[in-house]
Amino acid sequence: MKTPKAILFAACVWALSSGRLYGQTNSLKSIQTQFDVYSQQTLQEKLYVHVDRPFYVSGEIVWFKINAVDGTYHKPLSLSKIAYVEVLDKERKPVLQAKVSLLNAVGSGSFSLPASLTSGNYVVRAYTSWMKNFSPDFYSYTPVTIVNTRRNLGLKASKDSAALDIQFFPEGGNLVKGITSQVAVKIVNKSGKGVDAEGTILDAQGAVLAQFKTLKFGLGKFAFTPTQEGSGYTAILRFSNRESVTRKLPSVQAQGYVLRLEEKGQGQLRITVASNLAERSGEELFLIGHAGQKISVSEATRLANGRGEFVLNKLGLADGITHFTLFNSRKQPLSERLYFQRPKQQLVIAAALDKPQYGTREKVTLQLSAATSGGQILPADMSLAVYRLDSLSVDSGPDINSVLWLTSDLKGTVENPNYYLTSTGAEATEAADNLMLTHGWSRFQWTDIFSNTPPKLDYLPELSGHLIEGRVVHRFTGKPGPKIGAYLTSPSRLARLYTATSDESGRVRFETQNLNGPKELMVQTNTQTDSMYRVEILNPFSLQYCASIAAPVVLSEALRSALTKRSLHIQVQNAYSRKQLSTYKIPAVDSVSFYGKPNETYKLDDYTRFKVLEEVMREYVPGVLVRRRNDGFHFMVVDNVNGGVFSKNPMVLLDGFPVFDINKLMAIDPLTIQKLEVFTSRYIQGAMTYEGLVSFTTYKGDLGGFQPNPAVLMQEYEGPQWQREFYSPRYETAAEKQSRLPDARNLLYWNPNVTTTADGNKTVEFYTSDQQGKYMVVMQGMAPNGLAGSRRFVFEIKQPL
């Protein structure tokens, strides 16, 4: 039997241990809770953009497809209805811009490359309004090369001797005196391509401490133990051309923490922590691992003799990149480390041609299907491009999985990202780990999560349509005008009026629909009550740019012949198929005005035409009473609901444009008006309430010569892009095959909406052109459950015997 003293001692031990356990549990729970709250407030979107080819010459068309997914599970996310797509030059300036409608988390569009572009490497950047709340590093970036053959190309006879960018990355963030660290090295040239090298690490006295050799794409790593603090360590790097360079290693800290991640075998990871802080002996440390916005690892350990350890089961980690962060008991982040796990499941796209080889102007039949890795057939939405391979198109670009699972969570340019998704074996695993060590990056600051302050979100998601944002300001002082009603329209025969009320900063948001293509916007306040204010339209495109820029293009003299042929072919296509290449699919729109079915409709051609609008109103429109007062004309609409007459002017529209000065309206020529509609009851539009509504429609929908108030902003505006139709000729008859019209297409086929079903194959047909050679077929697809996949293969076109 235990003595009272033993019982008391056991109770004290239990109390102390349970207190420590409570402290551990409470701290971990607090971190996870605050992380979850922040994640719910900052839902992440990701965009993948599939461009039809990696290389273009001016005069060609860039076709693209957009997939929108959530940032954690990568399932289709129908949050935003508009995507913003730009082509950025080497100085990060947009040379082309478009707004693209998203339906069911997908969209597509095109850019016609003008002759004004200079040759170079460009980036196709895409994002949503909601994504503008976060760093531009989160946007989608797709590199393309554009060459303008009408300008001096600067062709070089020899390779460009580019300067090297050499960087070192200590694992976990810092080198610490007396603690062995893994250090990654990244060596790239001016074009962003990795450069292989061997290296030697020396101390201040010239003693060799370590040696290394890059593995893939100019990435490698080595281990060494710094014994002195400061910047006394040097790396000497030697290259295949026998040149060598010297670089300083990062400065060594006197005290701190070092994080080490390694494969333990049997599906486990070991993460060790070492510290030389004697006063931290016995300190509690916490490890949080998250992928996207979901925490998959939440562990605690205690330093013993300056070391701590976490052993993790890799099966418990999410696919893609897991961010490991080490915290102390005060919830201060100490070190970070990234780990990449290839997706366990991918969409497998099967593709089969009806023939191994084709002649010119011959039909190609392609059978497509999609399935899980286990063979279960799935429906999928795909984009399909078929283009000619030449010495210009050597890279097919990143595929959908490498973007969603890898590059979208890494900062900077990743060379050949597809390698890390498709290659297996020890070398591929080590190469992926080198990439994690050299491209570490977090989408947020932990201080933002622990601040307990809601994140500042200036931009709303466009849930229903394009949000046109503006600012109401005083006409003379420029100060913001709060609580001012604003009205936006684009005059046409179909009345479309959008309203908003400014907030305290004068900001207004008009939620528009069906304003596709080029439009003339007219925006104003009520010129009768708020005449001292005007409205400015804000640029909807992001003005924030990430630090990295496109590498300069280096064109070899050996490409002259291929460039000349490519330029000639596109000129031929544009000359003979200009009309077909400029055909657009105009989206169907609701043919009813925004106010719906009116109570009264008058087609003025059915009546005797008067030369004065006042007579028209008095003679033919009993639902509207015309009154003259000291300040001129007023309309009073009959209130059929309550059996009376409204005392205030109704909302009066001319081709959808609000007219607040009835006197100016009464002065227009009634012969320009084709139709008059009246809403004989109170009408509510958002925060606006109108005492009836009177809508005039001219024959041309151009205001019929009416001159708006000078305070009205009139601005050309490009709405969501119209869909350009891809032109692909058909050669079904002998006469069509023998046509003397040349067919110089480099891009045989583009279809952003190839949909397979759960029943099996999808058949796609297209015809070859007059150009012989090898052709690349590229498919990018996504299933409704988020599985994504790609497929590439090559076939050949030869002149028939």
Please provide a written account of the structure:
With 801 residues, the chain is mainly beta. Among the domains are: 45-156 and 557-580, Macroglobulin (MG2) domain (Immunoglobulin-like, Sandwich); 175-253, Sandwich (Immunoglobulin-like); 600-718, TonB-dependent receptor, plug domain (Ferric Hydroxamate Uptake Protein, Chain A, domain 1), CATH 2.170.130. The protein contains 10 helices and 49 strands. The strands form 14 sheets. It has a 5-stranded mixed sheet. Strands 26-49-48-28-46 form a 5-stranded mixed sheet, with no helix packed on it. Strands 36-42-43-40-41 form a 5-stranded mixed sheet, with no helix packed on it. Strand 42 and strand 43 form a beta hairpin. The longest helix is centred in the N-terminal third of the chain and has 38 residues, at 4-41. The chain is globular. The protein starts with a helix and ends with a strand.
Tell me the number of strands: 49
The CATH homology group name of the domain at 45-156 and 557-580: Macroglobulin (MG2) domain
What CATH architecture label of the domain at 45-156 and 557-580 applies?
Answer: Sandwich
Q: Largest sheet, described in full? A: 5 strands, mixed
Give the proportion of residues in helices.
10-25%
CATH topology of the domain at 45-156 and 557-580: Immunoglobulin-like
Q: What share of residues are in beta strands?
A: 35-45%
* Rg, Cα atoms, Å: 33 Å
Q: Report the top-level CATH class of the domain at 45-156 and 557-580.
A: Mainly Beta
Q: How does the helix and strand content classify structurally?
A: mainly beta
Shape: globular
Contiguous uncertain segments of 5+ residues: 1-24, 157-161
Q: Whole-Å distance between the termini?
A: 103 Å
Spatial strand sequence of the major β-sheet: 2-8-7-4-5
Helix segment tally: 10
Overall pLDDT, averaged?
90
